[in-house]
Structures are given as structure tokens and as C-alpha cells.
């Protein structure tokens, strides 16, 4: 595993301590950020001999494309804000570029898989019946975020630093795989060969209709079998996933035009860039036409899923992409009226997975038991607020409700923090770091340097 430089961690501690204001637990917040960054690096991150970076989720020895990018996003914040020495930040850039190289490798192997093994040893969570059996895949649940997090991270790293070392020989094949998959899954019923079946499992771990998922009609959105929670979609078009995919495709277009276009083997890069932008525009138009529903007061809000046949469902899930997290992902503005109306509905009993108790109130998930709020969602709640006092209050609440473990969890019971799921969940730790860093002025966005 990887050890972060002590000089970097010291600089992080000082930046958080001096930046978050006179909070009662400011020292504990700073200490935890350092502890979580160290823990993520030393227990989940592996710098591979081929120059790639492999990142496990924590208590599961596989790499999720979504989780791995989220787990290392705090490192990009440190690079953007120039925390630590130049040499320290070079270590972080190498890890991030290595993660992207691993993303491209996996996307070329199978753009439908959500989680992968470190080596092709055929390890897996459970036995699945699907249309491709590959020993690299830990699990083959098709989720839109698997196609989105890599291009988004690559774009942000490139914009912030100018680094293009991640654009290796697998980048263009991965881009082609992403674009082909998106175009296919805009017409899932007619064009897709993907199916996923699992027996003797909860209903959310398999797809209905013999593995094809609930019936959909083409409308410009991209079909997804599973949500970012790894639970099956109730309806086939996940709205927050499509928002993030449209953004990622636009950013992939920039990368194809300005990075891959310089290579001798990239003759089709301009055409691929144009295709990425065309698909992004189609998805955004479809979101406006099909993704909005009436809220409780008649205002328009975003649905969570639709089917292209007139059906929709409103809820929000703690996992990102989420409706709550759309401004965090830079898909919409935090002051956008439609987002604000959606946010109000998400953070209310209108959302069936909003739970409130004596210790916590926030968004949970059907992936975990009733009355469990996710720290990930609480951090996203803070990251999408412009109120520094609210951000500080959330950090302090999360410290109080860690069940005495010193770590963030998956879900925490709203009345009894000693009841939680997943004692070791690295993504959740990283989201705590993001909120603390954000409060300290260490932001995700940077002025473009390229």
C-alpha cells in the first residue's frame, strides 16, 4: 500500500485547522482528515508495477470504478489548492494518473462491469448469469457512473495541472468503449445484449424480465440496470446518473479534442469528440423533456427514475450520483430553482429514504436497513450548502455519531449510532475529508491551467 508524505499530512492538518473557523471540534476535525487520508492510502491504495493505481473499497477486496475515483478526490483538492510541497503534490498526481490508467484498462475489458479484481483471478461477490464472463470482473452490474467518474476525474486533473500522463494507449480504446456503450443503451430493448441474473438473492440484486430490467422506451436517456447503490433500478432511466453522464461526455469530448488528438494513433479523435458532445446534448435535452415531474407544491423537480413510457418515481439515494449531489458533481448550479425545489423534497418525508431521529436526520438508502442515514449523504448535504455554520455542524454531528469507532460508516441508525453498517468504508471517510477541506477553502474547482 501507499504512504503519503509526512510533510503533506502536516500541511493538511494546518490548512484545515486554520481554515474551518472557531469550531468547538476544529482540532478533532483536522486530526480526522489526516487520519482518514493516511488510512485510505495505507489500507486501500496500491501502486502497481505497470504504473496504475488499484484501490479497494475497504472491507471488500475489489475496485469499484465509482468508489475509487471518489476515494481519491480529496487528493485532487490538495493538488488544486497547492497544499504541501511541489514534490508532495507530484506524488498525488502520480496516484491519480495511475488510477485513471487502471480505469481505462477496465473499461476496455468490460464497460458493463461495476467492480474489478486486481488480477484476473475470477474472484466475485456472488455467482451471476450474464452475457460476458471475464475473470477480471468482480461484479457486472451496469451503472452509468462506471462510465462517468474516469472522464470527469481526468478532465479535472488536466484542467488543474495540465497533466496528461494518464492518456496512455488504453485511453482511446476506453473512450470508444464508453461511447459505444452509451449509444447502445439509449436503445436498450432493441440493441443491447446485456442481461444480469442472480438467484437466491434479494430482489434488488437481480434484474426483472429474465435479466433485461423493467421495460423502457427510447427517449434520449441512457438505460442503467443498477443504481449507484448497486441496487437494481426500479425504472430504467436513472436521472442523476444521466446528469453526471452528460457532464462526463462533454468533458470526454474536451479530452479527445485537446489531449488524445495530439497522438499519431488518434486519427478518429475529432470524430469521437464530436460524438461525445452529440450524446451529451441528446441526454440533456431528454432530461429536460422527460426527467422533470411536479413537486408537492406544483413546482417542477427532478424525478429519480423514469421509464420513457410515462412512469416515474421520486426518491433520492445516499449514493452519488444523487439528486442531492448534482451541484457537488457540477451538473447544475447550487442556486438553480429546480435544484432547490428538488433538494427541499429530498430532505423531507417526501423522499421515502429520508430518515429523522434523535441523533441524525438525512438521506439513507434501500441498500441498508430502515432508519439508517448515510454519512456520505450528510457530507453531500454540507457540500451543496453555502452555509459554513451548517458545514461545521454536520462535521461535528458525524464525529458524535461514529459509534465510537473513529471511522465513518455506510449507514448509521438515526437513534443509536452504535448500530451501523460497514465498519470500514473508505468512500465515506473520503467524503468527510472533502467536506472539511471544502470548509477550509480547499475546493474541487480550479482555474484552468491549460
Automatic annotation (TrEMBL):
InterPro entries (UniProt xref): 6-hairpin_glycosidase_sf, 6hp_glycosidase-like_sf, GH125
Pfam families noted in UniProt: Glyco_hydro_125
Domain of life: Bacteria
UniProt name for this protein: Meiotically up-regulated gene 157 (Mug157) protein
Native source organism of the sequence: Brachybacterium fresconis
Amino acid at each position: 500500500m501507499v504512504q503519503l508524505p509526512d510533510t503533506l499530512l502536516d500541511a493538511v492538518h494546518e490548512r484545515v485547522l486554520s481554515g474551518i473557523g472557531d469550531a468547538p471540534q476544529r482540532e478533532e476535525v483536522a486530526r480526522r482528515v489526516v487520519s482518514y487520508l493516511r488510512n485510505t492510502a495505507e489500507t486501500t491504495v496500491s501502486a502497481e508495477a505497470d504504473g496504475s493505481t488499484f484501490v479497494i473499497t475497504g472491507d471488500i477486496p475489489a475496485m469499484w470504478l465509482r468508489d475509487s475515483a471518489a476515494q481519491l478526490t480529496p487528493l485532487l483538492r490538495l493538488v488544486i489548492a497547492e497544499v504541501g510541497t511541489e514534490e508532495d503534490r507530484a506524488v498525488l498526481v502520480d496516484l491519480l494518473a495511475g488510477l485513471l490508467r487502471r480505469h481505462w484498462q477496465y473499461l476496455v475489458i468490460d464497460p458493463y462491469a461495476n467492480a474489478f479484481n486486481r488480477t484476473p483471478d475470477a474472484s466475485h461477490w456472488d455467482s451471476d448469469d450474464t452475457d460476458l464472463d471475464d475473470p477480471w470482473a468482480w461484479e457486472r452490474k451496469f451503472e452509468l457512473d462506471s462510465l462517468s467518474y474516469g472522464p470527469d476525474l481526468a478532465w479535472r486533473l488536466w484542467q488543474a495541472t495540465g497533466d496528461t500522463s494518464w492518456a496512455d494507449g488504453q485511453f482511446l480504446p476506453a473512450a470508444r468503449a464508453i461511447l459505444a456503450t452509451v449509444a447502445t443503451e439509449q436503445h436498450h430493448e432493441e440493441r443491447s445484449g446485456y442481461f444480469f441474473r442472480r438467484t437466491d438473492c434479494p430482489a434488488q440484486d437481480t434484474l426483472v424480465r429474465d435479466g433485461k430490467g423493467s421495460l423502457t422506451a427510447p427517449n434520449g436517456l441512457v438505460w442503467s440496470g443498477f443504481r449507484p447503490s448497486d441496487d437494481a433500478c426500479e425504472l430504467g432511466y436513472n436521472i442523476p446518473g444521466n446528469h453526471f453522464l452528460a457532464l462526463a461526455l462533454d468533458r470526454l469530448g474536451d479530452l479527445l479534442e485537446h489531449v488524445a488528438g495530439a497522438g499519431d494513433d488518434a486519427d478518429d479523435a475529432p470524430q469521437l469528440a464530436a460524438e461525445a458532445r452529440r450524446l451529451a446534448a441528446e441526454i440533456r435535452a431528454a432530461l429536460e423533456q422527460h426527467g422533470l415531474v411536479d413537486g408537492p407544491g406544483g413546482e417542477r423537480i427532478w424525478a429519480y427514475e423514469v421509464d420513457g413510457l410515462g412512469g416515474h418515481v421520486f426518491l433520492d439515494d445516499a449514493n452519488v450520483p444523487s439528486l442531492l449531489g448534482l451541484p457537488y458533481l457540477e451538473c447544475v448550479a447550487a442556486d438553480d430553482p429546480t435544484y432547490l425545489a428538488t433538494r427541499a423534497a429530498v430532505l423531507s418525508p417526501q423522499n421515502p429514504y429520508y430518515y429523522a431521529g434523535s441523533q441524525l436526520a438525512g438521506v439513507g438508502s434501500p441498500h441498508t436497513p430502515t432508519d439508517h442515514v448515510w454519512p456520505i449523504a450528510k457530507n453531500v448535504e454540507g457540500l451543496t450548502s453555502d452555509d459554513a455554520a451548517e458545514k461545521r455542524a454536520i462535521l461535528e454531528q458525524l464525529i458524535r455519531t461514529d459509534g465510537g469507532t473513529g471511522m465513518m460508516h455506510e449507514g448509521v441508525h438515526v437513534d443509536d449510532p452504535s448500530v451501523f453498517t460497514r465498519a470500514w468504508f473508505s468512500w465515506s471517510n473520503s467524503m468527510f475529508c472533502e467536506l472539511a477541506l471544502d470548509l477550509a477553502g480547499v475546493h474541487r474547482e480550479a482555474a484552468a491551467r491549460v
